[in-house]
Design a protein that fits this description.
This protein has one domain: Transcription Regulator spoIIAA. Helices cover 8% and strands 40% of the residues. It is built from 1 helix and 9 strands. The strands form 2 sheets. The protein has a 6-stranded mixed β-sheet. It has a 3-stranded mixed β-sheet with strand order 4-6-5, with helices on one face. The longest helix has 9 residues. It is elongated, with a radius of gyration of 15 Å.
């Protein structure tokens, strides 16, 4: 979906990906159709486990590493699924935001504090 401001001078493409196994989510995001030339910003909304750096593991599930998107054309990725918070990090071309759960509590101790 492309959002524009009132005079159409700024266009933002937002790609969202429903929950799937992390490898499937990675493939879908990195193989999304190219961003149109007249779009200034591309945002990805991913429902997946993720962490700074390279791929890892959480509760026995593969996590996507922010570094896997370093050369992508996403300017910003908003992460969901994992309820823990992580500071905003830019890795390569992409800034990653993982705020944790905004609507319900996690089982993680960091949500209790």
């Amino acid at each position: 979906m492309i959002f524009t401001n009132n005079d159409a001078s700024v266009k933002v493409l937002v790609d969202s990906f429903m929950y799937a196994e992390e490898d499937i989510t990675l493939e879908r995001a990195l193989n999304a159709p190219p961003c149109p030339d007249d779009v200034q910003y591309r945002i990805g909304i991913l429902h997946a486990y993720a962490n700074p750096g390279n791929a890892g593991s959480m509760f026995g599930h593969r996590t996507l590493g922010y570094h896997e998107f370093a050369e992508s054309d996403y300017d910003l990725i908003l992460w969901g699924h994992d309820h823990s918070r992580e500071k905003t990090i830019t890795d390569g071309n992409t800034t990653h935001i993982r705020l944790g759960s905004l609507s319900r509590a996690s089982l993680a101790e960091d949500e209790v504090r």
